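G., before I forget:
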Amino acid sequence: MARIRAGAALFALAALSGCAHIGAQPWQRDVLARKSMQLAREPAIMAFDEHTYFSKEAASGGRSFDGGGCGCN
Amino acid sequence: MQLTGPRIAGTLGALAGALLGAAPLAAQTAPEAAPQAAPQTAPQTGEAAPNAYDETSSEAGTLVADTAVLYYQEDESRVRVIESETGLTWNRANGTVISGKFVYDSLTGATPNGAARSRNVVQTFRPPTQRGGHLPAASTREHAGDTTTGASGIYEIKRGRLPVDAGFKDRRKAVDLGVTVPVASGLKLSMGGAGSWEMDFTSYSGRASLAKELFNKNTTLSLGYNYERDSVKPFTGIPRALASMGETVVGTGRHKVVSSFVAGLTQVLTPGWLAQLNWSHGVSTGYQTDPYKLVSLVDSASGDPFAYVYEKRPDRRVRDSIYAGTKFALGSAVTDASVRWYRDSWGIKSWTFALSEHAPLGRSAYVEPGIRYYRQTGARFFRHYLLIDEITPDFVSADSRLGAFHAWTFGIKAGAKIAPNLEIYGAAERYIQEGQRFDRTAPGTLARTDLFAGSKSVSLITGLRVTFR
């Protein structure tokens, strides 16, 4: 039992120390700032696709609000 | 021809939005709605990027005009949609973003009316009788091809054919205005409104969301609310639910209200890897029945159609979804992967998986092949048909969108920067729904009849973006 606790503590410590490295420093942001890395890369294509899926499938939402604004479903 | 109006109207809409201080957020996927994990103050390396899409996305101090067209065609000459979208986004140097979008679409073709195929019988469909006993004029519904019709809107479907209402025809105009304002250090407020007008459907919505950057801008928390009010005024009037086709209508229109919440977390994991997690919760109340959809009442021995009744859905639907997405850069290539879990109070559960790979092409272009898989279970009240001698259930729908199926999308996107301020982009997609086609427990010949009414389609998209600095 003690061994499990020690293991768990070690794991938590390792995870915490890992947290310290999560993210990017301000001078490391060139890749994140690229056009190709933006979450909504091509908003028009995304909107057309969402509209198609909204009108053909029961599920909606996820990326954003799940309303539809059209009578297609 | 369709583009001229939208372009002007879109420009006017955006200007009006700017003047009124009103707010957009593209209806579903506004660029400013997505938390910006990457700051707009990214350092420039001073060297030319190997590919145009490696350049910084910083758009502060620009006016971006974006116009795109979708051509959507379902197999077997079913629905065809031509949709145009024109948007203007003004990215002010102080971080304020004002945007307006105008959408116009035109929809024609044949849509399944819910009735099951019949191998033995020519099926005749008639719209509801108006109050006072008159059949409605054909209005905007015209019938051709595998169907025949008179001025009354009555149409026939040949043996073995999927019953479709071939006169499906509509136009939609939609406007969306939004604004995002930095209200404090690392805190952005977005507000917006949208309106959508169809011949038989009107929708208005308003939204507000907050996004807060934390931990050196590595974490973004967001919270949003959207309120939508829809009105439906079917060409044929509101039919009596579960009543036989052709009976007198019970009204001219109905309403529905949708409240949606989204809570999101965007996390930068490494300098080339970010992840997004969203939880969405929506509650719809009001009329959610499709006034044009039917359910076949079939003979318990032969399986032949005896009559058709109008479908009925519950007045309340609660939806929940969890979306997780990630973007990972390796050199100039970016892998985009996402998964969505969904469930609703009608008994539908679904999973969606998507994967795409952004690959640079030369110095100024990219291609992005992608694949998407979707599957859903059916609603509790989904039925392909009802037996003539069974007790009518409280709710029933044969709409294939509420049945169990899975779907694949195979697509490719591409874009090219053809001048310092000019970008063209496009996409080609193939969408295929598949589901169980036969019900071996069905009576008579119905057991050997294809009951699946899912669709297959092709989408072609092309767009142009101009950036004014």
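The helical segments of chain A are 2-19, 43-56. The mean pLDDT of chain A is 77.

More on Monday.
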